[in-house]
Input
Amino acid sequence: MTEMNFVKIKQPTAAAVCSLVELDEEARQLLQDDTAPAQYLQQLIEKELYPDAVRFLAVALPKREAIWWACSCARLTLGESPSPVDVKAIEAAEAWVYKPTEENRRLTRPTAEATQFKTPAGWAAIAAFWSGGNISPAEGAVVPPAEELTGKAVIGAVMLAAVRSGADKIKANYRLFLKKGLHIANGGDGRAVQ
Output
C-alpha cells in the first residue's frame, strides 16, 4: 500500500483528514503532523484498528466515491434472498452515484427511510441524500446538510456491513471492505477486489 498515491484523496496530510472525524485514542497516537493519508491508513490497518480505518477513509474520500464504497459493502451483505427494501435503497444510492442529480438524490430518502436505518443499504441511501441540496421535508424550508453527514452515514453503512455476517467474520469483512475502499481511493471502482 505504500506505493499507492490515493488519487481520489485530496487532503495533503492525514491530520487534515483526522480533523473531520473522531478516532479512538490509539489511532490518534499514531498521527503525526506530516503523515500522508496513505501512510496513516496503512498504519491503522497493520495495527488492526479497522473501525478507525473505516472512519478515516469514509471522510477522506470525496462524497460520490465514499457513497459508492458504502453501496459496494452493503451489496455484499444482501445474501441470496435480499430484502426488496434493501435492494431499492442500494439501487437508489447507486443511481445517484452514476448520475448525481438533485432528482436522484431526493429519491434516496424514501428508500433509506423504508429500511428504518437498520441495514447497510439504508445508510448508503441516506448518505446519498445527505450529500448536498435541501434535506428539509417541509415545503418552502431550505436546510442544507451538515458537511460531515455523508461521511457519518458511510461509516454507518460500512461498519454495519462488517458485523452483519457474525462475529467470526468481522475482521475478514473489515479487511475486504478496506481493500475495496483503497481501490476506490486509487481511482478504481472496487468491484474486482475479492
